[in-house]
Design goal:
Elements lengths: L10 E5 L11 H9 L4 E8 L5 E3 L15 H4 L11 H4 L14 H5 L18 H11 L2 E6 L8 H4 L2 H11 L6 E5 L2 H10 L4 E6 L7 H8 L3 E4 L6 H9 L3 E2 L7 H10 L3 E4 L6
Parallel strand pairs: 1-2, 1-9, 2-4, 4-5, 5-6, 6-7, 7-8
Antiparallel strand pairs: 2-3
Length: 275
């Protein structure tokens, strides 16, 4: 597989699994994104106390899980994922919507008790579970490695790139994965360890540096820019340099149309159903 256009259209990547469809970074969201026509999905990885790689965006558990009302986590602050084992994190519900995506039933009862029979699809997934489901659904997966260098002890996160790549290879998903990060040293390290696995450098919306130079230094295959200050000239320059261009997080249809016209190879969106 490659990151080239499909039938002259960009690949559609469901942001955090497609968080307008179900709770972010859950397997439930991914299934709905597939039904909506997404080609792949984007996720964020972190590490647990016992060294497992999990899917979670924030560096704490408070916004996207029920950790603020779960006795184990209330009684043992701060609610940072690396302070807890995978088994403990699996006790949490990840069935939480951001307010702007929130259906009425969640607004009425935003923190629901965790039922014993809560499905696996609504708990914090591991990277292994995410890769297995992506293979089952024949979807691309963009694994963003969060910058853990200052937030997590080095004995847990110092080899996060190697851990992620080892899991990817163990699941035989090398040709359906892009490894990306805002920490470009992670991207460079990924290419050193596994040159055949595709990589992308992430940059903020108003990035002050030269993205082509950043991609060159990291030996990246793709540039993942924030879309707000992106121009057609920048897209064309990146494409001419041989980079795939996958802007985030593109939620308005008019923006999708404009960026597609400019020649981007992918779109990261919370609304894959509208792409």
């Amino acid at each position: 597989m490659s990151l080239s256009l499909i039938n002259s259209r960009p690949l559609i990547w469901a942001h955090r699994g497609g968080r307008s469809l179900a709770a972010e970074n859950t397997l439930a969201a991914v299934r709905k994104a597939k039904e909506a026509g997404a080609d792949g999905w984007e996720l964020d990885v972190q590490v647990t106390k016992d060294g497992e790689v999990i899917i979670l965006h924030d560096l704490n558990l408070l916004r996207s899980t029920n950790a603020s009302v779960h006795p184990l986590f209330v009684g043992n602050p701060p609610a940072l994922p690396w302070r807890f084992s995978l088994a403990e994190l699996k006790e949490l519900s990840a069935d939480v919507f951001p307010r702007r995506f929130c259906p009425p039933k969640y607004i009425e009862q935003p923190w629901r008790e965790l039922p014993e029979n809560l499905p696996v699809d609504l708990r914090i997934p591991t990277l292994v579970e995410a890769l297995k489901l992506s293979r089952e659904l024949d979807m691309w997966i963009n694994v963003e490695i969060k910058d853990l260098s200052k937030a997590v002890p080095d004995y847990l996160a110092g080899d996060i790139v190697e851990k992620v790549l080892g899991i990817i290879r163990a699941q035989s998903m090398d040709d359906q994965v892009v490894v990306s990060s805002f920490k470009h040293d992670y991207v460079r390290r990924s290419k050193e360890v596994a040159p055949h696995i595709l990589t992308g450098v992430l940059t903020e919306h108003k990035y002050a540096g030269d993205p082509l130079e950043a991609a060159r230094i990291a030996n990246a295959d793709a540039w993942h820019p924030g879309f707000r200050f992106l121009t057609e000239e920048k897209v064309q320059a990146a494409r001419e340099a041989g980079l795939a261009v996958t802007p985030y997080t593109v939620n308005e249809v008019e923006d999708m149309k404009r960026l597609t016209k400019w020649g981007v190879t992918g779109l990261v969106t919370d609304y894959p159903q509208n792409a």
